[in-house]
Structures are given as C-alpha cells and as structure tokens.
Amino acid sequence: MSSNITSTKISPQSVPRVSDPSSFKCWAYTRIGKRCPNRVKSREGEPIPVPYCGLHMKAGDGALKVVKHPFAGKCLVARWALPPKYRMAFFGIRGRCPSCEKDDRAISFYPPCQITGKNRDAATGDTIAKYNGVLNPDGTGDLIQYAACPGPQERQNMRSTFQYWGKRNGKIGGLEFITLEKIPANTQLCHWYGDGWWAARGVKRRNVGTREHPAPKRDKVKRRRRQKRNEEGIKKEKSGNTDGGCDDYDYDDDSSDIVNEICCGSPLYAMAV
C-alpha cells in the first residue's frame, strides 16, 4: 500500500467549458490511481453538469477517502498526495433549507448563468448569487460533505470557488472546491465553515487533527499576531473608540482570499455522526 501511495501521481483537472462539450470529463480518479476516462453529459439541461460520471456520482472521487474520526464521527482525507489546485465537486439534491437543529450537511445553492455556466456576469464580471435553496448530499455518493472545519490552531487547505453547477429549480447541483496547497496522503482536507455555522448550532470549535490523520497547522507567529490584534480590538470596543465592526478584528478563518459560501447563517456542514 505504501508503494502505491508514493508512486501514484495525481494531476489537477481542466475546467469544463460550455463552448466545448468534449471538455465535460469526469474529474475523479479510480481507487487504483487512474484518471477516470468517462465523459459527462448534461443531466437536466444545465449548461455544465457536475463533473463526475454516473459511477463516481455514486462512489465519489477515488483520490479521496472517508475515515473514522474520534469525535467528529467521520472525516475526509487524501488517499494519495494531492497537488495544489486539485478540483473536487460537492453535490447534492436541491431542496429547502433544513433546520439547524438537525444533522445536516447541506450547502446553499446559487445556480450559474444558463448561457455561460459561470457564476459571474460575462459583461460586468459581477458575481451571480441568486439563492435557490440548498444542496443536500444525504443519500448521494458525495464525499466533500465529510471535510472538517479546521480548529483554532489549524488552517484550511481547500476552499470553494463559488463556481456552481446545475440550473434554477433543478433536481441536482454542485459546487467546486480546490486544494490550496500540496496535501500529503492521509492528511485531512479542511475548509472554513464560517462563524455563523458554529453560532447557529451552539457548538464549540476544536482542533480536528489526529496522529493518523493530521490537519494542517497554523503558523505560530501569525497566530500570536492575530491574537494581539483581536485583543486590541476588544479594548477599543470597551473604551468606546470603535463600533465593533469587522475592521477591528482579525477573524480566525485564515482566509483573506477565500470566496466563502456561507450566507446569513444558512447551514453548511454538520460534523458527521
């Protein structure tokens, strides 16, 4: 097994284009480290389909695997070393937003332009974000639902791009995620859920890395600087020199360049149980 881990080479995938249906290729790898050769077709008239073939919509990307976690239930790890900008798809059945009191792993859905297949206006470059329910991965082969949120001493190594697939009021949709760095085999894939996720559920955030499946650690120097800035922000608020706005705090998301999918407290992912 160790020889397979070191010899298997995973490469970033190309982006599907509306103008070239031949670019609709399955992004997944098989569990023996071979890129899936299947092409993907539109399932319900959407401009660009979720980039997994029927087999991998059921089984998930073989370059990833779900393992047991001591307190989260399950977590997502790299089966082999993943390169930066490796592309992955979260997908689910579109429907109404469930209650935060339930164990949900749904994500808000913003269907892309039906002409370009992108979530940006071709003329203005503005983001297209018209809410259309949530995507619920329950009962599907989606694996991204098990990616954990990094803890206070950890950081994310993947993020969403706000590139969705599907159509308004359609049955199924998806959201693109990419890796931010090289991820060693058996390392957890983590992304920031957003402050609202934790507040809505009354759950205390904690480190998720384990000896067998570590999570990427924060830089200690940057963490100390962040803590100092936050302490200064609290002092300013108590003295009445600030309105407590975002500019006075350095929130613990380690993601100044992230395009976050959180929307006004809408539920994202729940820890798997």
Topology:
Elements: H1 2-7, H2 54-59, E1 64-69, E2 73-78, E3 87-95, E4 107-108, E5 134-136, E6 158-165, E7 172-179, H3 195-201, H4 220-239
Antiparallel strand pairs: 1-2, 3-5, 3-7, 4-5, 6-7
Q: How would you briefly describe this protein structure?
A:
It contains 4 helices and 7 strands. The chain is of the alpha+beta class and 273 residues long.
Question: Notable features of this structure?
Answer:
273 residues; alpha+beta; two-stranded antiparallel ribbon
Describe it.
- With 273 residues, the chain is an alpha+beta fold.
- It contains four helices and seven strands.
- It has helices spanning 2-7, 54-59, 195-201, 220-239; strands spanning 64-69, 73-78, 87-95, 107-108, 134-136, 158-165, 172-179.
- The strands form two sheets. It has a five-stranded antiparallel beta sheet with strand order 4-5-3-7-6, with no helix packed on it.
- Strand 1 and strand 2 form a beta hairpin.
- It is globular.
- The two termini are 28 Å apart.
- The model is unreliable at 242-273 (pLDDT under 50).
| Helix/sheet category | alpha+beta
The level of helicity is 10-25%
Helix count from the secondary structure assignment: 4
The profile of the biggest β sheet is:
5 strands, antiparallel
Q: How much strand?
A: 15-25%
What global shape is seen?
globular
**Mean pLDDT across all amino acids:** 83
**Quantity of strands, as a count:** 7
Rg from alpha-carbon coordinates: 19 Å
Distance between the termini: 28 Å
